[in-house]
Fold this sequence. Notes:
378 residues, 12 helices
Amino acid sequence: MVGEAxxxxxxxEDASSLMLxxxxxxxxxxxxAIERALQTVDTIGRRSATFDLSDLRRLDTAGAWxxxxxxxxxxxxxxxxxxxxxxxxxxxxxxxxxKSDRPAKIEPHIGNLFVxxxxxxxxxVDEGFRTGCDLVGFFGLVLETLxxxxxxxxRLRVTSTVYHMEQTGFDAVPIVSLISFLIGAVxxxxxxxxxxxxxxxxxxxxxxxxxxxREIGILLTAIMVAGRSxxxxxxxxxxxxxxxxxxxxxxxxxxxxxxxxxxRVIALLVMMPILGFIAAMMGLLGGGLVVWTELEMSPAMxxxxxKDAVDIWDAGVAFIKAPVFGLxxxxxxxxxxxxxxxxxxSVGQRTTASVVEGIFTVIVLDALFSIMFVKLGI
Length: 378
């Protein structure tokens, strides 16, 4: 018998076989003493070895690992190893330790910096292409779910939709208003400084009005919503997937697209035009304040200049873009949330990807809209 009083090992042997009887508490507290005891066991020349766990009181992961490591040593020496007397809990723990014994995946070393850069670029392009294809398929699934809801409106989760309208829309009004007001003021101030060189300070109104109504207001709103609401969608759905709540929904016969995705998509479809309108008005207000204080243009004259500077299409362009931006942001946020797997680290990675992809998609769509409107003469 070797070991300490609270964890010991009885060893009995003959010419070719060995019987090992772990006793006491084989836990991490006694791991050092258990390891010393196991090191005294000779594994060479044995045909068979048996672990009798019937007298083992307690076993944790450290003790199970030491037993498994000894078992591997016997097997590598050519001995047949059997386990006897293990309780179901002990067998489960030993099996779990055995399954976790996998070699670490070693990434191949690429010595050339240029080759390494090309490989990384290629991997990124391939991943981007695959993500794009998956996103197109997800877009089709969203449209299918939306069509089913239109055919049968009772499928719509009204309470959830209204909740997300409040979270993504009304709760975002303060930050959207503040930033739009400040950007409008900065644009008017910098624009007036440059136009003053040509004696055209009065056209500062045109600069602020056209810029905010056609481009800056809705683009700024979309970027803030992508960073605020798109990331929230990914984190919420990703956390639910980690806790296997989405699998539970499917078990109960609920469609995650109807329960989780569609309310968020509809919420942003409705709220993006409203937020875009608020951003445009606050930008015009910020620009008007600068024009009033710096150029001494009265509010009444500022409003008259606004009427002359813009037409119905300047405001209509933003309202055409807004639902498309909202759909793209909501869809990407939910798509990345459903791709979460494995760990909390995956939630962080997918949330980051959601924000980056959302902002990138919004800017690309805005560029396409700009080209289209120029070609159409709008």
